[in-house]
Amino acid sequence: MRPTALITGASSGIGKAFAKYYAEAGFDLVLVGRDIDQLTLVSEEVIAAGASCEICVADLSESDGVASVLGVCPEPDVVVANAGVTIAGRVGTREWADLEQMSYLLGVGVAQLLEGLVPAMTQRGSGDILIVSSIASLITMPNSAMYAASKSFVTAYGQSLAAETERFGIRVCVLCPGYVHTNLHERAGLAHLEKQVPGWMWISSDTVVQAGMKGLRRNKVVVVPGRVYRAVRPFMNSHAAQRLWRQLTKRH
Predict the structure, then answer these.
(1) Average pLDDT, the chain
(2) Which of 1, 127, 174, 176 could bond to 158 as cystine, CB 3.0-4.6 Å?
């Protein structure tokens, strides 16, 4: 039997790139997302690459959505936890319901999904888990406090999960990318970032996938994709870097 990869947030961007990678690597796929039209388009691409594909339409910002995914695919060989949104704004300026949904989607919901999937992996003695977190979990993020906190939660969860499950043959890699060319910022009303943030600060979805594969091979738990980000990460919390970042991302 062909192995199965479960990919959340698979309708575009990083999730779509992972779907294409695993299809070409000989996996069958379960693609999870909210947009059935976009999921269908991705499924057609991976089927053309020789994979069988099942679509699961679910809202992972709610526990019922997580439960539905567990019902559809309870024992995958690979999990890519990628579903995400971003919400920016000063403290106290965003609706709490929106922040609550975001924090569940990015944090507790990922943990709940993996809590349901990992036991089968430990019993089998193998499994790969890729958690798409963010550079925001490693640095100070003014005007994105809840987003950074949610990503910090899932980064910490992934690190502890890796330490706990390594002896069962499970590999865990937490990816912490910076700016990636996807539709994430446009959906969040942050399309101005594409114009204002310099090109050297952007990486592709394929770069994130390649970093994840290398991280798994090297048993590296936390990976920052992109040479530039790895080079500047030690300085990103400095006052000078924070002032520069605020100027680059400020609406004009």
Answers:
(1) 88
(2) 174
Q: Given phi > 0 = left and psi -120 to 50 = alpha, else beta, which region is 5?
A: beta
Residues 7 and 16: their CA atoms lie apart, in Å, by 9
Instruction: Please check the confidence at residue 29 and state whether its pLDDT lies above 70.
Output: yes
**Whole-angstrom distance, CA of residue 32 vs CA of residue 124:** 23
Does 147 participate in catalysis according to the annotation? Answer: yes
CATH of the domain at 172: 3.40.50.720
Q: How many domains does the chain have?
A: 1
Q: What is the dihedral of CA 72, 74, 78, 83, to 10 degrees?
A: 50
Residue tagged active-site, from 21, 22, 104, 147: 147
Of 60-69, 75-84, 88-97, 116-125, the one with minimum mean pLDDT is 88-97
Question: Whole domain around residue 160: which residue ranges?
Answer: 4-249
Q: Is residue 143 a contact partner of residue 88, using CB atoms and an 8 Å limit?
A: yes
Q: Which residues contact 252 (CB under 8 A, 6 or more apart)?
A: 192, 196
Q: Which string of b and e fits 145-158 if b means at least 16 CB within 10 Å?
A: bbbbbbbbbbbebb
17-31, 69-83, 227-241: the lowest-pLDDT one? 227-241
